[in-house]
Amino acid sequence: MFKLMRYLKPYWFQIIILLLSVALQVWGALRLPSLMAEIVNNGIVKGDTNYIITTGLHMLGWTTLSAFGALSSSYFSAKVGTAFARDVREDIYKKVLSFSISEIDRFTTASLITRTTNDIAQVQNTTVLALAMLVRAPLTCLGAIFEAISTAPDMIWIIGLSVAILLTLVIIILSLVMPKFKIFQQLLDKITLLTRENLTGLRVIRAFNNEHHEKHKFSITNTKLMRTDMFVGKVMSLQNPLMMLVFNGTSLLCIWIGINLMQENIAYLGDMMAFMQYAIQVILSFLFLTVLFVILPRANVSAARINKVLNTHPKIHWKKQTIGTPTKTPSVVFKNVDFVYGGAEEKVLNNISFTANAGETTAFIGSTGSGKSTLINLIPRFHDATSGEIIISGINIKNYSENDLMKLIGYVPQKGFLFSGTIQSNIKFGINSITKKDVESAAKVAQAADFINKLDDKYDHHIAEGGTNVSGGQKQRLSIARAIAKNPDIYIFDDSFSALDMKTDAALRQALKPITKNSVTLIVAQRINTIKVADQIIVLDKGNVVGKGTHNELLTKCKVYQEIAKSQLSDAEYSRELTLAQKQRQKGGK
User: Is the dihedral of CA 29, 31, 34, 38 positive or negative?
Assistant: First the structure.
């Protein structure tokens, strides 16, 4: 919690006003019991009505000042607390955006959401309370003790006894609830994870008639969360009765001792009343501190979770400025590239080397788990290669600034993702400066114009979060249009044609040719028909390059490629393709 206090520095002036307001509130509250004692001793006992009225007006003035201080301190504590939470939330959001995929996976999406919302809200509420209470309670306590000693030193031991009992109760309560706060936050993470997972995969759950299993899984975690919360609630529910017992016991003890002392001196009546009020103020101060000490451990757990995100340094470090000047003709070169996921023993990619030139299409194919998507994700630096070099347009990828590298790349992920907004805003997502004509042109190349023009709002048609109100094929075509609109030097299509029918696939690839003639085109695909016209096909198997060449070359000499072809083509089609490939190879040999 203390580490997050650096976010309060910009608001030092408001905090000073807050502290002064608290001091004014405490000062006014401390003056009232002594004035009341004077009214009793010098006014009521002596029958001096004018003195009672004059002192009463003084009390009214001090009450007004104290009320003004209370309102002012509440306003500034809320203002500083909300600004503090806003700044922390912004920094967490920026930090998460800087994370590589490995950091996101380590924290999990659900946990990051909880830390950005629930944990920050917990710290904010504690900060608002602490800004006032951490100053007000100690000031009130010390001031009340000083006044109590001045007023009735014979009864000061009563306050000492009450404080000792209160401290014992607070220690017992904290020792019971503190371990549960961390468990509570972890269970809340799991609830968020299950809710997000079930809502995202609702269609799959229903398709497999698995609602009962998911409900049971959620119910187990929810019950654990409820029991943890109930335990904390039960322990905390003991706080108020126990504190009130101490509070009322102190009042009764003050009256009993005071009455005995009054038998010797009737003027002690006012002092007894003032002392009782000061004793109550001391106990109330401890009550406020108790509440603060109970919520502080929970906030401290939340603060630790927030700090863990803020103190995590991304594994991928970007240069502030690109070192070197990229060549005018783009290219992608892999030199002996290896990659291992963090914590894994086996390499996902092993000694990968190839060159992809401008105006050429380089395709990657292989069985599931062969490393195709992992390889392609190294280019935009979603991960960094474990060893080897990746050179983009003559510059090592690690010497690029993030902005300069991303300008070069038009990326279409394996699973197309659309943002809430319109079709036009999604296509312009990569570069907002393009015109509507450019948007329409990109949509036409991506074979999306036909279905867009059938919509009532056309390019202003609303897109729901994640693109849930369009089909998989439409979502994929809009994702492709987004990359095309950027007009990049390097196109990356990570299995981006899988949701397209054969006719649309062929039309899209034909339309792409003229606009990618000066760019590097990299395609990950499962279907041979998607990549058979590629200038270079790289065949991967268990992270190794087992074949490199054209469709015809690989069909005659690469066993893995032949197996893929046999699995996708009928016997007649495969025989025809193989015969054509052999003839083509013989012609090349001659």
Answer: negative
Which of 407, 389, 404, 409 is CA-nearest to residue 519? 409
Round to whole Å and give the CA distance between 536 and 568: 20
DSSP assignment letter at 454: T
For the stretch 511-534, pLDDT in tens is: 888 888 889 999 888 888 778 888
Spatial distance between the Cα atoms of 230 and 226, rounded to a whole number of angstroms: 6
Match 């042109």 to its residue by tokens.
441
Element holding 388 (H helix, E strand): strand 387-392
Q: What is the pLDDT of residues 96-106, one digit of tens each?
A: 888 877 788 77
Task: Report how far residue 590's alpha carbon sits from residue 493's, in angstroms, rounded to the nearest whole number.
Answer: 36
pTM for the full predicted model? 0.70
Specify the DSSP class assigned to residue 382: S
In the chain the domains, ranked by start, together with CATH numbers, are 2-310 (1.20.1560.10), 331-549 (3.40.50.300), 551-590 (no CATH)
Cα distances (Å, whole numbers) of residue 528 to 65, 521, 572: 82, 16, 16
Give the C-alpha separation, 281 to 66, whole Å. 14
Structural element, H or E, at residue 523: strand 520-524
